[in-house]
Write a structure and sequence with these properties.
Structural class: alpha+beta
Strand order of the largest sheet: 2-12-7-9
Mean pLDDT: 85
Distance between the termini: 95 Å
CATH architecture of the largest domain: Sandwich
Strand content: 25-35%
Number of strands: 13
Shape: elongated
């Protein structure tokens, strides 16, 4: 009995498929017959359409700075004697340059560090240094605040020995102010006194 039922199901399924195939064949036959009873051929290919795919490369040149302020604090006798310095790490300057060589320049807003809050004294710019830290394939220079105040961009601080393209390349810098008692007479009204100058970095194409 079970085998008989199974066979019947199979027969029904096959019958449906055969019937459907017969129906589709009739439809196909009807679609290929024209109004006058003639045969209609297949639709031809359309006209080709073209797209211009362009890869456009533009030069990129950016520079960012990780610190917007650096403090050299004199708070012990040893500081006044030996000087105070601060060396950046992990990329004080970061450069992306694609297309041509480049240099990094540094410029000061004035030749000397100036006082504030009524203090008209200054710190001699020749006693404060900004030094680029050398690395493979990169020439680096030490610059005094007083010598980086002229020209459009100031003084060159870093220069690649080749024109390699770089992405997010890191550069570090040392800031250093003098010792040997150079600032012993610079306290204003014998209180904590700040002298300041802006240091501006610029990436310049070769």
């Amino acid at each position: 009995m079970k085998n008989s039922v199974k066979n019947q199901v199979k027969n029904v399924v096959l019958a449906v498929l055969v019937a459907a195939g017969s129906t589709f064949a009739g439809v196909a036959s009807a679609q290929t017959t024209g109004l006058g009873g003639g045969q209609v051929g297949p639709v031809g290919n359309g006209s080709p359409a073209q797209v211009a795919l362009n890869v456009i490369l533009k030069p990129v040149r950016t520079l960012t700075v990780s610190h917007d302020q650096v403090n050299l604090v004199y708070e012990t006798a040893a500081d006044y004697e030996n000087g105070v310095s601060f060396t950046t790490t992990n990329g004080h300057l970061r450069v992306t340059n694609i297309g041509g060589g480049y240099k990094i320049y540094v410029k000061s807003s004035s030749p000397n560090l100036v006082g504030e809050s009524g203090n008209t004294n200054t710190i001699d710019g020749s006693t404060v240094m900004v030094t680029g830290l050398a690395q493979s394939g990169v020439n680096a220079y030490a610059r005094k605040i007083s010598e980086m105040n002229s020209g459009t961009y100031g003084a060159e601080l870093f220069h690649h020995s080749n024109n390699a393209n770089v992405v997010d390349k890191a550069y570090d810098v040392e800031y250093k102010a003098a010792g040997k008692g150079a600032y012993l007479d610079k306290l204003f009204q014998n209180k904590q006194t700040k002298y300041t100058v802006n240091v501006v970095y610029t990436i310049v194409s070769e």
